[in-house]
Amino acid sequence: MLRYATDWLGVYREEVNALNVYPVPDGDTGTNMHLTMQSVRRELDTCDENSMPSVARAISYGALLGARGNSGVILSQLLKGFAETIKDSAEVDAALLARAFQAAQKSGYGAVMKPVEGTILTVARGVAEGARGQSVDMVLENALFKGQELLDQTPEMLPALKQAGVIDSGGQGYLYIVQGMLAELRGDALPEAPEITHYAQQQFENEEFGFCTEFLMSGATKPIEEIRELVSPYGDSLLVVGAEGYVKGHIHTNEPDELLATVGRHGKMLKTKVEDMSEQHTEILGMVGAMARAEEELAPSGLVAVANGYGLVKLFRSLGARIVSGGQTANPSVQDIVDAVRSVSAERVIVLPNNKNVLMAAEKAMELMEGRAVVIPTRTLGQGIGAALAFQPDVAAEELKEAMTQAAQAITTFEVTRASRTTNITTKNGDTLDIAEGDVIGLQDDELVQAGGSPEDSVLKMLGAAYAGQEIITVFGGPQKTQEDLEALAGRIGQEFSMAEVEVHAGGPDLYDYLVTLE
Fold it and tell me: 3-class SS at 325?
C-alpha cells in the first residue's frame, strides 16, 4: 500500500507543487514529499517483508533519511508515529490502522516547535479523527472524508492560502498518500497526471524569501533539544528531529553558512541542501511563463546538471541549467534525470552528470528519452562548471557537444574530504599513502593524490603540484567552512600563486571541505 501510495503521489506531484505558498513559497512541497516516500520505498524493497518490526523500521528509517523540505520532515514524523504503532503486531486490522493514524498525528504535532493550523498537521488531525470503521477500507474512506473536510477549511485558517485562493499543499499531499493506500487495496489503476495551469507562487513577491536550509548529521555530540536551541535563532520554519542515531534539520534562514558551520561542530555532517527560495520562485514563475509560450518555437538546446551544495547549484542555475539534486553518496535515479529533461522547454537537452557514479544513470536516461537528451561525460563538478560555461541555448546540442566537452577537459578539479575508512593506497604517481579513518584526503580529477595535514594544507599542496600558469583558481567551501575560513585560504593561495586570480564562494558540495577548480 505504501509503495503504491508513492506512485499515486508521484502522479499529483506537480499539482501539489503548484499549490504551495506557506510559510514562504519554496515551491517544491510535492517533490519533497514524493522524495521522502521514495526513500521509504527503497527501504521497504530491502527489508524482511515477513517481519512487522522490519517493515516498521523501514518506514520510519527510510522516511527520516529521505525527508526533504518542511513538508518532507513533517511527513517523516507522521510516518514515524504510524510505524511505531504497528511494529509489535503480526498484522494490521482496522482498529490498529486507526490507532496508527492517530499516533501519526501526535508524532507530527510533537515534532514542530510552534504548530500552525491550516497546514499538513491540520489535515493529519482530520485523518486521525476520521479513521474509524469495521474494516480497513472503511477506516481509509472515513479518514479521507474527514481529512478532506479539514483540508477545505485551510484557507480560512491561513491568510496566505486565502490570498492565493488555494488549499494547503502539504495537506493535499498527505491525502494523496492515504488515497494511494486505499487505491492499492481496491486495485484501482493510477490516474493521468492533471494539467497544471496556475501556480500559487504567482501571488507573491520575492523580497521576503531566504534560504531553505537542511542538514542530516550522524554522531551528534549534543541532544536533539540542544541542537534545536542552537538552530532556532537563525530563522523560522524550524524542524529538528532524530532517530536511529541521526539528526535531521530544516530551517528557513538568511545565514545558511553560519548555521551549518555551527551545527557541524557537533557531529558528522552527511548531507546538506540550501535552496535560494527567491531564485526558486523566479524559476517557478519562469515555468508559468513557459506554459504561456507553449505555442512558440522551442529553444534549440536546454541544460540539466546534477549538483549539490547551494553555491554550486546557484552557479549552474545562473548558466541556464535545470538542477537534479545529487552527488557523492546521493546519486540521483534514472527517473530523476528523465523527469528533469522532460521539464526543460528545448528541442534537445544536454545532461551534465558531474560524477563518475552518475554517468551510467545519465546514459540510461538518454536511451529512455529516445534521442532528446545528449550526455557530456563530466566526471567532476569542476568539469561540469567548465562545460556549462560553454553552453549556449540558441545553438544546437550536437554542435555544442564538442565545445562543451573540450571546455570540461580544460578544468582541473581538486576535492578535499575525509577518509571513510583506514586503508593503504598507491597513487597513480606511485606514492604510497597510509590513511586512517577521518584523515584529510585530496583528490585531483577524482584520483586520490594526497593524504594528511589540514584541509587547507591539502588544497595548497595539490595546487602546487598542478599549477602551470593557469589564470583562475576558484574555491568552494563545504558546509562546515565559515566565510573566515574561505578568506584565510584565499589569502594563502594569493601569496603562493600571485599571478592567478582567486575567487572564493560558500556552498560547496556535501561531505567535502573544499572543491577547487583550476582553469
Answer: strand
Cα–Cα distance, 12 to 20 (Å, whole number): 13
Overall residue count recorded for the chain in this entry: 519
Which run of H or of E encompasses 440? strand 440-444
210 CB-near residues (< 8 Å, 6+ apart): 24, 235, 252, 253, 254, 277
Distance set, CA 510 to CA 170, 207, 337 (Å): 27, 28, 20
CA 51 to chain centre: 31
Burial of 370 (0-12, 13-18, 19+ CB in 10 A): exposed
The rounded distance, in Å, linking the Cα atoms of 28 and 201 is: 11
Express each pLDDT in 442-475 by its tens digit. 999 988 999 999 999 999 999 999 999 999 999 9
Three-state SS string across 136-163, please?
HHHHHHHHHHHHHHHHHHHHHHCHHHHH
Nearest alpha carbon to residue 388 among 302, 455, 451? 302
How distant is the alpha carbon of residue 457 from its chain centre? Answer: 31
Burial of 510 (0-12, 13-18, 19+ CB in 10 A): buried
Cell numbers representing residue 178 in the block:
492515504
Spatial contact of 179 and 144, defined as CB atoms under 8 Å apart: yes
pTM for this entry: 0.58
pLDDT tens for 384-430 read 999 999 999 999 999 999 999 999 999 999 999 988 778 888 888 88
